[in-house]
Amino acid sequence: MEMKIKGGYVGRILEVDLSTEMIKERVVREDFAVKYVGGRGWGARMLYDLLSDKIRTLDRFRFMDVALSPENVLIIATGPLTGLYFPAAGKTSLVSISPATGIYADSNFGGMFGVELKQAGYDAIVIRGAARSLKYIYINDGVVEIRDASAYAGRGCVETERGIKEEIGDESVRVMCIGPAGENLVRFACVTTEWGRNAGRTGMGAVMGAKRLKAIAVQGSQDIPVHDLDALIEVSNRGYEYLRRHFLFDLWQRQGLMSVVDYINTMGVLPTYNYRHGVFERADDINGEIMERRYKIGDSACFACSMCCGNICLVKEGKYAGTVVEGPEYETACMFGPNLGVDDFSCIIRANYLCDDLGIDTITAGNLIGALMEAYEEGIVRKEDLGFELHWGDCDRILELLEKIARREGVGDVLAEGAHGVIQKWDEMRRLISHVKFLEQTGYDAHVSLCMALAYATCDIGAHHNRAWPIAKELEVGADWGIEEKVRLVIYHQTVRPLFDMLGVCRLPWIELGMDERLYAEAYTAATGVETSIEELLERSKMVYNLTRSISVLLGVRRRDDYPPERVFEEPLRGGPHDGAKLDRRTYEEALSLYYELRGWDEDGIPKEETLMQCGLEDVAAAIKELRMRERERGQQD
User: Fold this and answer.
1) Contact 313, 295 (CB under 8 A)
2) Structure pTM?
3) Strands (E), 134-290
4) Per-residue pLDDT tens for 502-513?
């Protein structure tokens, strides 16, 4: 067979078994590389292959605990464009079964780690088993060691990264690590790299903690192969030039994602007081302008990204003086600001710093603390349960709760279990926690957006906007759209946005500044030598979505799980342009059924056999067929 791949990939996967300390590598099969593209695509397929027996026999609630056992695997995968000269080509995906949701999960971070990994000779790492004591993995140009990490036990991510670099004796080493939250198996612990870039969602830090893996350090000096360098430079230059000329480019360099605060508040969908209000009356105190004028001291950017949307912020006075952080970004500012009734930007910066250092997902933390505040307000939880009073806007208590979560102290031990654990402790909080499949909702209210409600509900990892962010288009121009147009918009977003995670690039140049998606296909062809089109790449992305859905279906996900938080149907939104609005349940049911039909899934949200066969997932189709037979047999017995 003539080799088609001539670049983009380095062609090797590193496998580390921490239980046996066995280290090996394998060559990437060409058909696998092309079919699943890279990043989350590779990760999803390898996850299914490695865990298919358990995925086919265990339900998601049992898998929440299996996820924190040596039996789970963690896959770290770059994409074919990671590390190349192309806008924002610095993304790395982490894939596993989530200890927070018990279903398929992935998360990603930008920066330089994935670039360095490819320069060290690997496209991906597969980690199995669990070490007997705390370890870190050191990769240096293809030489791999498992090293003692006991000196870093209990240390925060900032100190851990600094310490490992000092131990190795090279400041250029790239480190991904966990903080105390990961070591203590907080189910929404994140993985941090480069001081404050996080694979924040779905509990990847807890998976590392369960494996007693404190960190991975990598350095490399090898060139990443490129098939046609001149063609890659030409297509990339077109992308950079387009971004530079965009009228919002300057704003993005100055404020980054913090510019979204004013936009979402004006649209009336800014989560405020635990998703009850859509407008925060003091948003001017925590927006991008305040950040830029009073706190920002520098910029930061991921690899090869001219948008440079990272902000270095410093608190210069007051009780949090001296706190410096890369951030906050919109989600963190939203979840620790309006959602908790906080109008002190220095408090948000401090919360951001603590989450980065302790290794906690800011979105889940802000979501759960907001639900706890409402529960305290309603008398569901009392001072005796918490050990203190808890009121909206109380910065000191918020910061104290973050420490308690990371250390699993007091009520922090309950919150550390995530939405599922909190509901098990206080069932009356079920209606107060905005989540889908036990992944807590992000920073866009869905009371008035059918598109956003459907996007959250059908996202393959839970209530996250990373798969689809259709709310802006719907509210700006889609008021008179029919249901089918809205459903198709959600599916399109869920196809193109995950493709960026497969390619190893950031989605912001496309979603925020409208860079032509055809450039990504041109860059893929130039890098790899594999002729393709954006249409063909999107078909591969659809295939991966069918795969991840099938994994979760085999673990028990059905139509009953594909709903937005109940409060968007039952409790009218308060304040702002949408005061009194709520989502119509019958309209949502119609949209969900149409979504399934257009996806090629049945009325219970299970991918049809012909759908899986058509996209080349024959073994997955067989597993789904077997599942249906078992369910029919159980039904006959009942």
Assistant:
1) yes
2) 0.96
3) 135-140, 143-148, 174-177, 191-193, 197-199, 213-219
4) 999 999 998 889
